Fold this protein.
Amino acid sequence: MKDKSKGNLWIINSDGSAHRKLTTRELSESQARWSPNGDRIAFVSSTNEGSEIYMYWINTGQIAKLTHLKKSPGNLIWSQDGRSLAFTMKIDAEAPVIVKAPAKPKGAKWADPARITDRLKHEADGSGYVTPGFTHIFIIPSQGGTPRQLTSGNYNHRGPLSFSSNGTHIYFSSNRNEDWEYNYRNSEVYKVNTSAKEITALTTQQGPDYAPKVSPDGSKIAFISYKDKVQTYQISQLYIMNPDGSDRQLLSGNLDRSVSDITWDNSGKGLYFMYDDKGNTKVAHITLNGKIRKLADNVGGTTIGRPYGGGSFSVSNNGTLAYTQTRPEYPAELAVIQPKSKEAKLITNLNADVLGYRELGKVEEVWYTSSVDGRDIQGWLVKPPFYDATKKYPLLVENHGGPISNYGDRFSPEIQLYAADGYLVFYPNPRGSTSYGEEFGNLLYNNYPGDDYQDVMDGVDHMVDKGMADNDKLFVTGGSAGGIMTAWIIGKNNRFKAAVVHKPVMNWISKTLVADNYFMYADSRYPGKPWENFENYWKFSPLSLVGNIETPTMVMVGMNDLRTPPSEAKQLYHALKWRKVETVLVELPESFHNISNKPSQLISKVAHTLAWLRKYNE
């Protein structure tokens, strides 16, 4: 058994019958795509030599490998006539050379050669050093053959693809502007001719235009976009235009929420999409007149750990909606809504063998008022199993990451394990969280951490005032932006008996110059670059408050974290150790920013967190 997760393809009838594994292979499988007439499924699977494209025939169950690629394929799609497949793949480029090394003596074993880079983005959390090269679009016959590269130039073409109805063009998004490397928030929608390879730009707005989808009759292109105002948060909106880029129209202007995962209905008169609203993910349908009809709630459950959003959906030609549904009591299960029904029917129960024999903590929605400006703030409270309303319980605050993200009423094994250890667990969505509109999410501009701190503390006071939480037994934790908030909280007050700070940013000056995404914070988070606005960057750095901290603090970080590098965690640990505050540093080997990517690391994270809290929960 290997310490990692993998995906396998399964198939099930829409009534829940005939649930079975699609292939006999035990390798990772992903990107399953039905052929237009439903007779085949194309998918990507790992091999000993990398990932390849495979084909599965529904009637016979036979499988064939279609490709032998140099790199892993992404964004796999079918042409509408079923004759072609398109995908994206990275093509390596030569790294810059400054000096030519002398020849090695015969039999010599030298160190690896120097690694040289001259790129703005040269590393990525989760994968490490980014080898030089650019991602391009390829096309291949669906029966197999030689892939043909359609795009060229030193530009990346990484996003979703969409064939024109007659197969002569592929629509995609990219940033092919001259200053693409530094104007990184911008992208346009393009089309490339599948024969002549001619590329035409269809949009010009400053900001991201992406995820194009061609309507069934080819008369309209839907895509997601927003005009970049250079601020902390902006909602992504749904647009349509003609195939030549003319007559651009905003469809979702009446919805103050970000849209994602757009797909046309079979008639071409509207689209399906997902959005988050008040910590809950929905599927909706929108007409070409902008009329929105919500179809499903509670989408998600595909991220295991904390109660973040996620999930996916699919709609059949007759309008049957299938999606991953989650509730606080279970992770993703398949749910189906038939065209003439409004009720979701679960057709799987994958975790009944485990969850059917466990008493979980009950999750309750909580609303309270911010003392900053009277805004309504949403959160959730998880009660310990076998909760006794006559008792007061220790309260553990769990702060979400992002901070441009949200928690919700979704399954979370981490939260449940904390509750099972006897804590009331409170997880809020303070200002800056998504799913409450653009203005609410943008309140953190040049004010982070700021009033969101008070939103969290108002929630703590609300729990204490209700008589549920023991004010003398308060604890706090969180990861990434949640780690920032946790460090900020214990720097602002000494009410908490213990804290666990996961993968924090302690110093915005060092973070903004060291992290893999170092170039993405200036102006959108704080005005100017660190050396232009030094005092402001420092003012919002939790390290500026470290002299106030008296709370016993565990600091945890992945040793390969490139997003909030270990040097950030060490600044907190070293400062506390220097000041003789009770502290310990926990470093997880081979772990990136997703500190619990491997199952054993999730276990380790929760076990260490609980062990530290127990030490002070007396």
About this structure: Residues 271-353 form one domain. The CA atoms of residues 392 and 468 lie 5 Å apart. The two ends are 39 Å apart (CA to CA). The chain has nine helices and 36 strands.
